[in-house]
């Protein structure tokens, strides 16, 4: 939406709210415009900034959702002038922005860009320069002392950065203005380190001013899980152990680790995406109805369900039976030769990092007792797909000839997070003809077909929310802590087990992942 559109949307939605006393203007699609502020981005030259953060900032400006005074200070080791940074951001926006190019929007944004060269994150003198640049922007662009520090850097640098940012006075309380810190995962590498990280950040800003980014929560389809469950009547009565056989949560990628060996080899699949994205999907799928959509109410329910997650299978802890891990070997994918994980540039030969992880979990509460949740995530799998599949039990009785139902599987609701965003229901139906034969059919809701609007990128939503101080889409430290509680024993178990199992590129992971379900008399979807 450009600025003119957004002005129109404001007046029309206000008018609509005004004429209907039942409508709350907050629920309408009023543009939510962020306060004037300075965003200081540590890690601006990294992949995430180039591919996602900078294009999202431009897209927000283009949609009229940033204040015209919004200013961006890049911090990095390059010897760049402000002009160099503008050229770099322009390149990233040109290549990755979602919305069309508008020179006037770009010029307004570019005017507020500055770059501060740091010889390292321990360069005290550079923090002084940064302080000066932020003060200059406050004065020249009227950013009113509002500051967001975006830390898109490895967590190992957090102590150095937070200490110096605090010492520089940049985050000191100032009446009438806000100071926020936005941090990217990984939130630590285990429960203890996550707690340390939290206490470091807690030294510079209040807990409510820390915004932890799990970009899956910014995806429309992930937010839609709560809409599907709690804005409809027909799903919730079935959403429990009485009707659900099991749940499969899959995040499959068809790409390898690319140039990210430095990051990925210290992390692995479980820490990279299960600790955050997949456990968040599990929490949203399994939580009780919150009293409202307020951050605190939603968070409380997510925390409750995460607290009930168990690694045991029928009460017994046997991680060899309930987890699987693998790493891709070299081969062909889509007709193209691809290297194995240990042949990727930068991966040590003796690496034991997994590129695939699967875990069977149970939830010890009345709603889910006895219903396994199977989570799997991996690189170089058969195709890119993220989905939550809720697989229902077989009907207790089928009044049909057994031959008529031979082609019928389990009713399934699939929440398709990406691609082809939408929801599919699989149900049995009569095959047209003179005799009774049943077969599975799909009922499909697709975002593309039902809505005209293109979904914003997750980072647009999250950056805007952080600038607005809106917390619901950011995991709280307690959720992070509970997720590590679940994962720590698995990672420790794997650490003692040596090299992961192998799997072919373009497959659905190692045999051990299939055994994990076979043991329960089930199979993965799409395998
Ligand atoms: C990131 C992981 O959080 O999510 C990456 O660090 C992964 O390894 C990426 O590739 C996938 O994100 P998306 O939005 O493409 O599913």
UniProtKB/TrEMBL annotation:
Catalysed transformations (reactions): D-glucose 6-phosphate + NADP(+) = 6-phospho-D-glucono-1,5-lactone + NADPH + H(+)
Sorted UniProt keywords: Carbohydrate metabolism, Glucose metabolism, NADP, Oxidoreductase
GO biological process: glucose metabolic process; pentose-phosphate shunt, oxidative branch
EC identifiers of the protein: 1.1.1.49
Domain annotation Glucose-6-phosphate dehydrogenase C-terminal: ranges: 226-525
GO molecular function: glucose-6-phosphate dehydrogenase activity; NADP binding
GO CC terms in record: cytosol
Segments traversing the membrane: none
Chain positions recorded as substrate binding sites: 215, 219, 253, 272, 379
Residues covered by region (Disordered): 1-23
Domain Glucose-6-phosphate dehydrogenase NAD-binding: 40-224
Residues at which NADP(+) binds: 77, 185
Catalytic residues, chain numbering: 277 (proton acceptor)
Pfam family, one: G6PD_C
Superkingdom: Bacteria
Pathway(s) where this gene product acts: Carbohydrate degradation; pentose phosphate pathway; D-ribulose 5-phosphate from D-glucose 6-phosphate (oxidative stage): step 1/3
Function: Catalyzes the oxidation of glucose 6-phosphate to 6-phosphogluconolactone.
Family: Belongs to the glucose-6-phosphate dehydrogenase family.
Protein name per UniProt: Glucose-6-phosphate 1-dehydrogenase
